[in-house]
Structures are given as C-alpha cells and as structure tokens.
Amino acid sequence: MATKMMLLVGTRKGVFLATSDEARRDWQIRGPFCDGWPIYHATYDDATGTIYAAAASEWHGTSIWRSSDLGESWTASSEGLAYEDGGRNLTKVSCITVDGDRLLAGAEPAGIFESHDGGETWSLVSRLEDLPGRAEWDEPGNQPPGHLGLPAVFAHDGEYKAIIQGVGLFGSTDGMKTWSPRNKGLRREWPGDHEEIGFCVHKVAVSPDPKRLYQQNHCGMHRSDDGGQTWTEITEGLPCDFGFAAAAHPHDRDSFYVVPLDGGHGRCMPDGKAAVWRTSDAGSSWQRLDRGLPQSDAFIGVLREGMAIDALDEPGLYFGSSTGQLFASADAGETWHEAAGYLPGISSVEVAVLA
Amino acid sequence: MARLRLPPTLPSFYADLPRRLDVDAPTVAAAFAELDARWPGLYDRLCEHGPALRTHIHVYVDGTRGGLDTPIGDASRVDVVAAISGG
C-alpha cells in the first residue's frame, strides 16, 4: 500500500490536518477541528489510529480532544484532569505522549497525568514534589512567561524524562515516583539557589542512539552522550543561541536541526530571513538550510513543538510558525516549500505515517 | 422551571446540547449540576477549582450578575455568558 503522510498541526484556533503522498510535496489541508479551541499539542497514536489534541479555552478550561477516524469526528474529555481539592487550578495540558498502551499528559502547573482508556478519563501520576526548591519554583508568582508548566514527558533510555518550563530536565527511574535533575553542564545566565535547578530547557530531541540527546535551551544548544546525565554546549557556529524547536535525524546520531531565533522580545528568525540550521557532526559545525524559505521580510518564529521530522529513508522535515505558515521539506531540510500559508498561529507540528 | 440560556461556544462541544433549555434547580450551582448529569463534563466547562465560575464565564439571573450560590426562581431567566476575551 502506498505510504500516506499526515501532519498534525496544533494552532491557536483548532487542529488542522495536512495529508500528502510519500513525495511530501502537495498537501491537502483539512480543519479547523476541535471547535476552534486553542491547541497546545496534537499527536497521533500509531497503534490505535487515534489523534489526540491538548486544548485550553479561555472560557471553558482544559480538555483533551480525540478522534479515531482521522478527524471526521471528535470527542473531548477533561475527566480527572484536576489537582486535588485544596490544590492548584490546572490551567492547561501542554503535551500528550503515547507511552505503550497508556497516554501521558504534561500540565500547567507542573504535573503528569495518565489515561488507560484512550483519553476518556485521566488520573494524576506525579507533581514532581520531591525536586529541590519545588515550593519556591512552583509558586504561582514565580511561574515563567509562557505558562506551559510541563511541556514534555517521555520514556527514554530506561527512565522517564520530563521538562518543567524554566526549571529544567528531570529523570525518574522508578516509574515517576521520584525524580532527580538531568541538568549538569547546562548554561544559565541568571543566579540559582540550586546547582541543578533553574534551567530553561526548551526542547529535547532524542537521536537514534539513546545515549545521544540534543537540547535547545534558552541559553544555547547542548548535546549529551550519556543519556542526559551531562551536557556539553554546541552553540558555536549558529547565528544566535536562542530558539525553541529542535529535531534529531531518525537515522544519523550526529545530525540535528534547530531554528535559531532572536532572543529578545521579537523571537523571530534573524534579519527576517527564514532558515533551519543543521549539524551533521554532532555540533562541531552548522549549516544554514534556506532553499525555498522566504529570505526577506520573514519575521517569523517557531515554538518548541513547532518542528517535526519523519522516519522515511530520506526524512521529511516540517515546521510551523507562530504566524501560521507551514513549511515542508522532503529531503531532510535541503529544499523547502510552503504547505500552507494562512493558518492560525501554529503551536505544534507532528508527523504520522498512515501506511 | 427556569429558562436557561447557554453561550454559543458550548452547544458545538456537545452535539445534542441546545442553546436554551429549562432547568428545575434552586441555585445556579444546582442548575449546572443538573446539566452535568445530562451532559457529562459540562460543569467543568463552566466552573473551576473552588468551585467557582471560570474567569470568563458570567452568569446573570433575571438580569442581575450572579454567582454559583445565586437562587433561581421558578420563572427565572438565567443567562450564561462567555465574556469577551481573546481574539
């Protein structure tokens, strides 16, 4: 059967689905789905063929939408997505991860929920209460801008890893009962009370070698060769050290992609010239990839879940901008084309192969 | 039976939820609980931890701004409004 590709695009006004054949050149866009709710992350479960989308409405709160027929119909649930009485208001779900036969969701304020019934009901797994200084960094007044709480949780290299926005990367080797920092070697440009707490980890990308990880941090690009225990900065050669999105090549442990952004208030691609940057030697050098991307007046940004890569022999690379442009490359970033130009602001892009 | 009006953002969330319906409940909170029994999860769409009305959900009982504890009479009109926010 011919391979069919699907991009799951989470936007400020619902989920959009873009489908193409294996050439990944012409994209058919459907949507908006989820009734136009703001979406923070949408993903696809290969095993069940279900799409999940984490939504947070200013009016109606948090809900996780799901579709088991590729977007034809949708159901939403927030049952169990709450902290205990006396606890904090759960303001949004920032990410959804398929973890075997269960789902994991990262929430703001920082917490992890699970579902064993395909997203119908949820229950709290962890609030990461044992981490150093939690009482201080979990205070509502100390929350960093962006308000994502816990934007990533995933199984990796014999443990679970989770990012807490503005706090750091953490690992759990006992099924998310206890946690410890994975931030040694990271740079920060502000004082901290704890040597391994207070790091702004934007995105962690896992290479095909589980010991090799890459990280886009608020303060530079970093690489780990020991499963995240220690990190080495690899920013040199990039136009700036700031960015959100990142993707690792699915077949080459030394190749990694980032989207450098101005680190001030603008947080756009430098000089209005769009580019993805790639290293093919684990960060020793970087190449600018911009063929087909706009090279003037392109003041666009890409958020932390805004880039994805597929696992075909020649991987496709995709990114969506916070101003609604969706770009695709069928040759691992060498050349690009616009798949959609006028979507709502894009918060997440994921790619699925539909056999 | 009080007459209750819901914001346009809700009926599309629940396929069979009308914009206007009758409820038999002594307070706004009880009315929302009655709705939740018929459309599970609806209470969470209107209220948050506390419980309290969500920040941008406003309720008017007979034209006067109310809260979850506001009494409802047999002939009351209850307007649930999604306040202007976002863009």
Average pLDDT confidence of chain A is 95
* SS field, number of helical segments of chain A: 1
How far the N terminus sits from the C terminus of chain A, by CA atoms, comes to 7 Å
The Cα radius of gyration of chain B reads 12 Å
What is the CATH architecture term of chain A?
Answer: 7 Propeller
Largest sheet of chain A: 4 strands, antiparallel
Q: Quote the beta fraction of chain A.
A: 35-45%
- N-to-C order of helices and strands of chain B: EEHHEEEEE
CATH C-level class of chain A is: Mainly Beta
CATH topology annotation of chain A: Methylamine Dehydrogenase, Chain H
CATH third-level topology of chain B? Ubiquitin-like (UB roll)
What oligomeric state best describes the polypeptide chains here?
A: heterodimer
- Structural class call of chain A reads mainly beta
How confident overall, as mean pLDDT of chain B?
91
Number of strands of chain A: 28
Chart the SSEs and their pairings.
The complex is a heterodimer of chains A (355) and B (87).
Chain A: E1 4-11, E2 14-21, E3 28-33, E4 39-45, E5 50-57, E6 61-67, E7 75-77, E8 92-99, E9 102-108, E10 111-115, E11 123-126, H1 134-137, E12 152-156, E13 159-164, E14 168-172, E15 180-181, E16 201-206, E17 213-217, E18 220-224, E19 232-233, E20 243-248, E21 256-260, E22 276-279, E23 287-289, E24 307-309, E25 317-320, E26 326-329, E27 337-340, E28 346-353
Chain B: E1 2-5, E2 20-23, H1 28-38, H2 42-46, E3 47-48, E4 52-53, E5 57-61, E6 64-66, E7 77-82
Parallel strand pairs in B: 1-7
Antiparallel strand pairs in B: 1-2, 3-4, 5-6, 5-7
Report on the structure:
The complex is a heterodimer of chains A (355) and B (87). Chain A is mainly β. Chain A has a single domain (4-353), classed as Methylamine Dehydrogenase, Chain H (7 Propeller), CATH 2.130.10. Chain A is built from 1 helix and 28 strands. In chain A, the strands form 7 sheets. A 4-stranded antiparallel beta sheet of chain A has the order 3-2-1-28, with no helix packed on it. The model of chain A has no long low-confidence stretch (mean pLDDT 95). By secondary structure, chain B is of the alpha+beta class. Chain B has a single domain (2-82), classed as Ubiquitin-like (UB roll) (Roll), CATH 3.10.20. Helix content of chain B is 18%, strand content 30%. Chain B has helices spanning 28-38, 42-46, and strands at 2-5, 20-23, 47-48, 52-53, 57-61, 64-66, 77-82. In chain B, the strands form 2 sheets. Chain B has a 5-stranded mixed beta sheet with strand order 2-1-7-5-6, covered by helices on one side. Chain A binds chain B through residues 35, 38, 57-61, 63, 76-79, 82-83, 85, 87-90, and chain B through 7, 9-10, 12-13, 40-41, 44-46, 48-49, 54-57, 82-83, 85-86.
